[in-house]
Structure to design on (229 residues):
């Protein structure tokens, strides 16, 4: 069975400090992995995606994520948080192969950034 | 590119009424997805289409929900009759070439059923 677990429902950081949002996945097949961001009252926007190329993936707004197969993790990081980063972040897995075509969303992590 | 367009952005209706949500995907995209987002259940895929044909509707909660895609540029999600537990934000998304690729989301329709 395919699943995604976001290990923290809420993360709070100070502006200028590093951000770490944790995600573990379970997939029977080699997965594609995504991080999406949702600002209040907005749709979801893709931050970055992993599709079996480089394991360190760089995205928009200074975010990056590292695919670690041995740990089944795909944590999202940013060296220095900005106030505009406050939003909800979703880790998403899309299992490749097996004819399974759905995106599976994690429960989300709400990031708060304090001055 | 205007992105995925959804209408209305907000809908308030009374229990028992019919509700129709609309979506215009990005031009050239051949996959279209309908999602529902609630606090309790998070984001759930309801149904998706490929080349206007429904491929998987296993996420549709019950017979009160129906979705159509009469052409490549328009889709509807209908709830009849609506119930208070249908209150949620409904998102439409589209992509090109494969359901594994990045999906582009619309701004959503916030539905409130009183």
């Amino acid at each position: 069975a395919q699943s995604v677990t976001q290990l923290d429902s809420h993360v709070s950081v100070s502006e200028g400090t590093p951000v770490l949002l944790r995600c573990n996945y379970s997939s029977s097949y080699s997965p594609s992995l995504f991080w999406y961001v949702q600002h209040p009252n907005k749709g979801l926007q893709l931050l970055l995606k992993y599709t079996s190329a480089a394991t360190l993936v760089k995205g928009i707004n200074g975010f990056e994520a590292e695919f670690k197969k041995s740990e089944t993790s795909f944590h999202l990081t940013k060296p220095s948080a900005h106030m505009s980063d406050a939003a909800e972040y979703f880790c998403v897995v899309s299992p490749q192969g097996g004819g399974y075509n759905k995106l599976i969303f994690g429960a989300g992590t709400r990031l708060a950034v304090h001055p | 590119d205007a992105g995925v367009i959804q209408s209305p952005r907000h809908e308030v209706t009374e229990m028992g009424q019919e509700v129709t949500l609309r979506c215009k995907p990005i031009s050239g995209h051949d996959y279209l997805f309908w999602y529902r987002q609630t606090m309790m259940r998070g984001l759930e895929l309801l149904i998706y289409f490929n080349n206007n044909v429904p491929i998987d509707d296993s996420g549709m909660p019950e017979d009160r929900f129906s979705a159509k895609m009469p052409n490549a540029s328009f889709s509807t999600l209908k709830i009849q009759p609506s119930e208070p537990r249908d209150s949620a934000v409904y998102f439409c998304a589209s992509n090109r070439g494969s359901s594994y690729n990045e999906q582009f989301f619309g701004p959503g329709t916030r539905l409130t059923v009183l």
Q: What stands out?
A: The two ends of chain A are 41 Å apart (CA to CA). The first strand of chain A starts at residue 3 and ends at 6. Chain A touches chain B through 20 residues (CB under 8 Å).
